[in-house]
Amino acid sequence: MVDNSVIVEKTIRKNKTQTKRVNKKKASASKVILYAVLIFWAVTTIFPFIWVIINSFKPSAELLTSSFSLPKEFTLDNYRNAFNNLNILRAYGMSFLISGSVTVGVIVLSSMMAFAMTRYKFRGKVILDGLLIASLMFPVFSTIIPVYQMMIKWGLLNSATSVILPQIASNLSFATIVMMGFMRSIPIDIEESAYMEGANVFTVFTRIIVPISKPAISTVAIFSFLWSYNDLFVQTTMIGKRANYPVCALLNEISSKYGTDYGLMAASVTIILIPVFIVYLLLQKNIIKGLTAGAVKG
Fold this sequence. Notes:
Number of helices: 14
Number of strands: 0
Low-confidence stretches: 294-298
Pfam families: BPD_transp_1
Keywords: Cell membrane, Membrane, Transmembrane, Transmembrane helix, Transport
Transmembrane segments: 32-54, 91-115, 127-151, 163-183, 204-227, 262-283
InterPro entries: MetI-like, MetI-like_sf
Family: Belongs to the binding-protein-dependent transport system permease family.
Distance between the termini: 65 Å
């Protein structure tokens, strides 16, 4: 006679095998759908950049007749016009001056604010924390008129400073919240040990907190630089002289003044995108790490 326990054991094994096969089929089907969605998203995201780069090497007449094909002959005339007639290099210098100053200012101020908010107890701390979050809901359009009037009274209009100060103020809340989330995850014991060894607050902040917070600082630097670099609204509002235009404001002028020269526009867009790609490629590894650090404890 066959033992019932053996039959039951074989049945259980058979059911487990069938269950694993079904789960594998479901997993493979879900992966196919996931990869299909990601590939579609990647293609729709990357294609416009490739399209602009390819068209930047075409003459404007050819671009109008066949914009979705490879150029019949590659030409650099569009890039020559961009550098010679539009003075792209001067606009680049203005953009790097503004974006670099904004990035440094935001990093310094947000890191100090985050350190104070996470390590000290003081009256009004809860209110200040709420104001930081609430300030994210106010768009720059709602404050541009009083800020513009302030720049006129201070005599800063049409200068790099008139763009740097508003951009630092608009980016500071987000940067401080990111830095606070990271610093809350840093063990307080490290700082207490440094204080017991005779270190002061400045030493603890510069020698311990700042080096540990490099991922969050990199994240803040990336977003601050990109937001400042692409902030066309503040640039065109505060700077009215063409000689002081940053590169994005200059592109806006190209689209209106040279609206029919699509080859020049494509070349100018390509030139403008180069710094964005370089900054992102150099610091992309720290974006997610800086944003998610401290998410459990914070």
